[in-house]
C-alpha cells in the first residue's frame, strides 16, 4: 500500500490535505505565524509515525516543537539550513549524508527570500532535480515558504505542474485565511483551482462548517429575480415580471434579505452614500451567502478607485460606471448571471474599512505631520503597490503666496491632505490614479489650476513619493525617526516643540526726539 502523509487540516476534502509518497509539494504563506502554525499542525498529524524530519532556515527548529505535546515528535531529526543559495544547491546531497531519507516526510520551513536569487529557469531546474531525487528515495518533501517574496514565487511556480505534485497558497484575510489550491495530486487523482476558507483554531487550521451553506435547490429558487432601486432604469418600466423596482437602497437591502440568489441593483448618486452602501452590501453578503448577485450602478461621477475597492471587498459582484449607457448596463447584468461570489468577505467591516482607508485625515497638516502620514500610508501592505495615491507640488503664480493659495483649496475627502514646503503647496490625494489627477484638481480648487499656479510636479509611484517625502523632511529638519511612526503616535520632538516657552519679562525703553538723541552721541 502506497504511503501518504496529511497536512492535518480538518474539515476539508482529503484530496486537498493528503500528500502522496514520493512527491514534492509547495505551499506559499503570506505570514510567518501562519506558516509556523501549519508546520506544527502537519508535524502533529504525523505523531503516529517517526518518519518525519524538519528543516528550518532562518530560525531554530526546536522552537517549533516546544508547543507540541506528542513525545514521539520530540525525537524527530531537526536541521537548520543556512540562508544561502549554495545551501539549496547541495540540499539533496546534505540530506543523504545527514539522515536516511527513505520513506520519510521532509518539511522545509523557509523564508521566501531564500529563493530570491533564483531565476525562473534555475528554480525549475532545482525543483526538477529535487523531484527526481525524491522519487529515487521514495520520500515526500513539503516546502512551506513565507514572508515577502511569496508573490514572486507563485508566479515562478505557477507553470511547474509537471514537476510539482502540489502547489497552493495560504492568504490571511483579517479574520480567516483563504486556502487557494492551484493543483494537488494524490493517488486518487488531481484537484485544481479550489478555494477554501480556513480558520485558526486551538489545534491549527480547520475548514469552514458547510452546514450553514444553502442547498443548491434553495439557491435556484429565485435565480431569475431582479430587485432594483427604481432610478437605475432611467424612468423605464420594469422590463419583465421578474423585475421589481423599489424606492430606495434601504428598501432594496431589506427585501434582499429574503433572497438567496437574486440580482440586487443599487443606485449611487453621491460619494457620501458610499459608507452606508458598503454596510448594506456587507450585511447582505455575510448573511445571505455567495449566491446573490450584488450590483452597484453609478448614476453620477462619485466613485474613486478606493471606493470601488471597498464595495468589491464588501461583497459586490459588479460596479457599473456612470458613463455606461442603459443598453450596456443591461448587457453587463446578463454577464454575471449564474455566477457565484468566490471572494472572502471579513466578518468585521470596521477592520475592512480601516484596512482600505487607513488615513482618516484631511485638510492642512504641518510639514512633519504631513510627511509622517504619507510615509505610514506608503507602508500599508493592504493597499496595492503604486496605487496608494498621487502627490503633487504646486508653485503659486507670481504675486500669490502658498498660504494664500490654500484658501482656494477645498479638500472634502478623507485621505486628501496638504502642506506648505519651500513656498510650494504640496497635496497628497489618497488612492487617486494619475490619469484622474486633472479631474480631481478641478473639483478641489475654486479657480483653474493653470491660472492660480505657475507650474506643478507630480509623483505617483510609491518609491518616488517616499523619496520626495524624505527629501522634504530633510529640508524641513524633521527627524527621520518620525517618518517610521503612525500619524497618531506621539513624538518626542513634537512634544518639545509644542511645550509652552518661558514667558519673557517686559523691558522699559525711553523714546527720545532726534535732538535729544544727538546729545547722547559720543564724539
From TrEMBL:
<dbReference type="InterPro" id="IPR017745">
    <property type="entry name" value="BcsE"/>
</dbReference>
<feature type="region of interest" description="Disordered">
    <location>
        <begin position="489"/>
        <end position="523"/>
    </location>
</feature>
<protein>
    <recommendedName>
        <fullName>Cellulose biosynthesis protein BcsE</fullName>
    </recommendedName>
</protein>
<dbReference type="Pfam" id="PF10995">
    <property type="entry name" value="CBP_BcsE"/>
</dbReference>
<dbReference type="GO" id="GO:0035438">
    <property type="term" value="F:cyclic-di-GMP binding"/>
</dbReference>
Amino acid at each position: 500500500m502506497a504511503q501518504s502523509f496529511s497536512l492535518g487540516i480538518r474539515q476539508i476534502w482529503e484530496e486537498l490535505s493528503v500528500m502522496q509518497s514520493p512527491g514534492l509539494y509547495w505551499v506559499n504563506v503570506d505570514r510567518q505565524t501562519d506558516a509556523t502554525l501549519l508546520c506544527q499542525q502537519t508535524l502533529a498529524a504525523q505523531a503516529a509515525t517517526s518518519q518525519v524530519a524538519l528543516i528550518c532556515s532562518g530560525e531554530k527548529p526546536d522552537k517549533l516543537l516546544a508547543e507540541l505535546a506528542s513525545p514521539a515528535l520530540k525525537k524527530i531529526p531537526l536541521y537548520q539550513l543556512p540562508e544561502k543559495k549554495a545551501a539549496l544547491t547541495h540540499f539533496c546531497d546534505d540530506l543523504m549524508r545527514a539522515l536516511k531519507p527513505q520513506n520519510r516526510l521532509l518539511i522545509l520551513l523557509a523564508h521566501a527570500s531564500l529563493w530570491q536569487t533564483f531565476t525562473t529557469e534555475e528554480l525549475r531546474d532545482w525543483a526538477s532535480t529535487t523531484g527526481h531525487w525524491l522519487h529515487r528515495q521514495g520520500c515526500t518533501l513539503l516546502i512551506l515558504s513565507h514572508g515577502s517574496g511569496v508573490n514572486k514565487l507563485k508566479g515562478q511556480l505557477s507553470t511547474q505542474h509537471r514537476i510539482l505534485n502540489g502547489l497552493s497558497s495560504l492568504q490571511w484575510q483579517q479574520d480567516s485565511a483563504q486556502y487557494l489550491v492551484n493543483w494537488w495530486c494524490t493517488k486518487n487523482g488531481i484537484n485544481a483551482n479550489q478555494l477554501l476558507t480556513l480558520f485558526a483554531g486551538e489545534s491549527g487550521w480547520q475548514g469552514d462548517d458547510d452546514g450553514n451553506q444553502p442547498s443548491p435547490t434553495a439557491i435556484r429558487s429565485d435565480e431569475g429575480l431582479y430587485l432594483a432601486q427604481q432610478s437605475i432604469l432611467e424612468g423605464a418600466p420594469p422590463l419583465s415580471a421578474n423585475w421589481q423596482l423599489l424606492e430606495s437602497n434601504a428598501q432594496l437591502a431589506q427585501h434582499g434579505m429574503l433572497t438567496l440568489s437574486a440580482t440586487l441593483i443599487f443606485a449611487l448618486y453621491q460619494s457620501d452614500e458610499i459608507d452606508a452602501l458598503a454596510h448594506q452590501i456587507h450585511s447582505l453578503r455575510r448573511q445571505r451567502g455567495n449566491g446573490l448577485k450584488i450590483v452597484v450602478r453609478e448614476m453620477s461621477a462619485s466613485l474613486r478607485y478606493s471606493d470601488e475597492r471597498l464595495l468589491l471587498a464588501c461583497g459586490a459582484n459588479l460596479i457599473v460606471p456612470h458613463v455606461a449607457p442603459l443598453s450596456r448596463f443591461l448587457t453587463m447584468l446578463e454577464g454575471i448571471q449564474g455566477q457565484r461570489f468566490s471572494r472572502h468577505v471579513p466578518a468585521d467591516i470596521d477592520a475592512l474599512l480601516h484596512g482600505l482607508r487607513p488615513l482618516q485625515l484631511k485638510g492642512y497638516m504641518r510639514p512633519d505631520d504631513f510627511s509622517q502620514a504619507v510615509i505610514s500610508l506608503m507602508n500599508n501592505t493592504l493597499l496595492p503597490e503604486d496605487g496608494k495615491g498621487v502627490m503633487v507640488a504646486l508653485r503659486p503664480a507670481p504675486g500669490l503666496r502658498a498660504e494664500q493659495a490654500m484658501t482656494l483649496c477645498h479638500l472634502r475627502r478623507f485621505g486628501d491632505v496638504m502642506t506648505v514646503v519651500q513656498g510650494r503647496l504640496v497635496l497628497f490625494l489618497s488612492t487617486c490614479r494619475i490619469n484622474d489627477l486633472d479631474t480631481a484638481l478641478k473639483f478641489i480648487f475654486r479657480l483653474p489650476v493653470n491660472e492660480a499656479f505657475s507650474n506643478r510636479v507630480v509623483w505617483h509611484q510609491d518609491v518616488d513619493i517616499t523619496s520626495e517625502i524624505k527629501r522634504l523632511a530633510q529640508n524641513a529638519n524633521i527627524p527621520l525617526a518620525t517618518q517610521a511612526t503612525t500619524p497618531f503616535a506621539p513624538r518626542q520632538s513634537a512634544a518639545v516643540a509644542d511645550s509652552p516657552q518661558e514667558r519673557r519679562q517686559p523691558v522699559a525703553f525711553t523714546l527720545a526726539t532726534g535732538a535729544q538723541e544727538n546729545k547722547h552721541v559720543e564724539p
